[in-house]
Specification:
Blueprint lengths: L9 H10 L9 H14 L3 E7 L3 E8 L5 E3 L5 H4 L6 E3 L12 H4 L6 E8 L5 E9 L7 H51 L3 E5 L5 E4 L1 H7 L3 H4 L4 H4 L2 H15 L5 E9 L5 E12 L5 E10 L1 H19 L3 H34 L4 E6 L4 E4 L1 H7 L3 H4 L4 H5 L2 H17 L8 E7 L5 E13 L2 E10 L1 H15 L9 H18 L2 E10 L1 H8 L1 H18 L5 E6 L2 E9 L3 H15 L3 E3 L2 E3 L2 E9 L9 H17 L5 E3 L4
Parallel strand pairs: 22-23
Antiparallel strand pairs: 1-2, 1-6, 2-3, 4-5, 5-6, 7-8, 7-11, 9-10, 10-11, 12-13, 12-16, 14-15, 15-16, 17-19, 17-22, 18-19, 20-21
Length: about 650
Amino acid sequence: MLIAPKPSNEAQRLALLRALELLDTPEEPFFDRIVRLVSRMLGVPIALVSLVDSDRQWFKSSFGLCAKQTDRDSSFCAHAILGLEPFVVEDAQQDTRFYDNPLVTGDPFIRFYAGVPLQTLGGAPLGTLCAIDTIPRVLAPVQLETLTDLADLVSEEIQYREYVSLASAQLSHDRRSVDASEARYRTVFENAAVGIAIVSPDGNWIRVNDAVCKMLGYSKSELERMTFQDVTYSDDLDKDLSLARQLIDNDIESYELEKRYVRKNGEVFWIMLSVTKKLDADGELDYFVGVIVDIDAKKRAEFSLRALQSDLNVQSDIDHSNDIVFRHISTQMNMERALLSSEAELKVILEHSSDAHIAVNEAGVVTSWNLSAEQIFGWEKQEAVGQRLNFLIIPPKFQQAHAEGLRYYVDNKEGHALDRRFEFLAMKKNGVTFPVEADIKLLTVGDRSFFSTFIRDISDRKAAEDNRDWEARHDSLTGLKNRRALLEDFPAILSDARKFKRDVAVFFIDLDGFKDVNDSQGHDAGDVVLKAVARRLVSAVREYDIVCRLAGDEFVIVLNGMLNGSIESHRLAARVIDSVKKPIEVAGSFVWVSCSIGIVQMSGLVEADRNPQDMLKMADAAMYEAKSRGKDQFADYTPC
């Protein structure tokens, strides 16, 4: 018994097979209908969807066979997945590879086998759709075509599941990226020197950082059971509630307030409170964000200085007055040092953020530019600060729109880019454009407003998305578009043909002699031939024609925008045939293949709504007509 060798991409093939979660799964109606059709249309007692695992073949669906799996060494399917073409054994007892195979000498007594590889998006064979009989058989071309068409349906179902799996994996990756970004913000939130609190619209503390707990003397769990009204000094509560109501009613965008809190031990102290609001996706108020700075030392210094002025009016003791002045100046200096320390810590957080942080005033002039902004955009801080942002990072063709958007906000106090994450095309100092993602917040301090913007480079993410889309629509060996791309693009091609009153032609191309090259010189030589043929097909047709590889040695060319109908398509078909049959160098020697072409001519006025699958089938039928005439030629489709 001849044991089939492992495919060259065995590790990748097995990884895909297991990732798609097809093995050891329940029966499914789709696959069961396919095997019943195979049995009925080919007249065989056994039909299988077989998946070739590392040491077994497992049947996703079977008709006429009770077993769910057999060992891989004795399986015919292990041989079938070594190539891209249908694998046919007309009489196993007369075949030196299988005459002593236990599946031939024993149950189920296989004499005839035909299997078509089932391929992933990248062309890796996972198993076969196969037909089995207990008597020798010779398949008619139409029967082999039927088996191939049904195998294509199974492959498309597997490829769809693969595409869904890839999309799910990317979504999971994107979610992990979002989680990582949120983790960075949580770190900033928890470790900030100032107090930061998330407060619900009714005043409940939703979340507070350690600085708030340290100021008030409560634990986080205690504060989360309280409201901000519970810790606000009673004389200051009405003003705070009035400003919060104006914020809810959209009368103001934010507010700052000096007020007093009451610590857990009853001590009253002064704070500076800055409040902004966060809206949900529907534009409704979600929560407030409060930034709390302890200014008790500053306020006490102010009170003491006012008391000192009063003392100086009635005190005549110069030494005593100097002592009072010294004490209060010292207190104020300590307070100012504490505030400067907090400000410095916040600056360090922003300066070393992994995202570019840029602050811009209402005139569009940059006022802050951190280290990541320098690295991402190429402008140093001293170059950027004081310049208009649109000249620094906005490509020239978008600069006017950016300036108009800023002016609209200044005039109307509203803008679609605020308080949401969005993507746009940015520009580096050297003029290179690249995609970025941005978050913009409007902050108001006193009578001044500015835009605080965090920007991140998403070039790698976009490149991965583009590469994933390319791989889903292109053949990995030749780089040509694949069947999926052809079927997706075909409706638009036919629509344009009808709109501009142009003809479209479809060539279905099958290589003559390719199997002999593959069998005699191996699959590596076959791959060289397929890539060479792909290049020749592209060169033989016009720049705006479409060349696709369907599977194996089958190609499709779509000629669009033709004015001369069949005259032009016949001329191009002859050029393709002449180009393909030129010798191809493989490992220092030459091989020859030719091609047979089936042509379907479509009028843009009459047939623009025809189903693409129907067009391919008609072109395929015309190709078989060309082969029956002796190969190396073309034939037009003629309705029966």
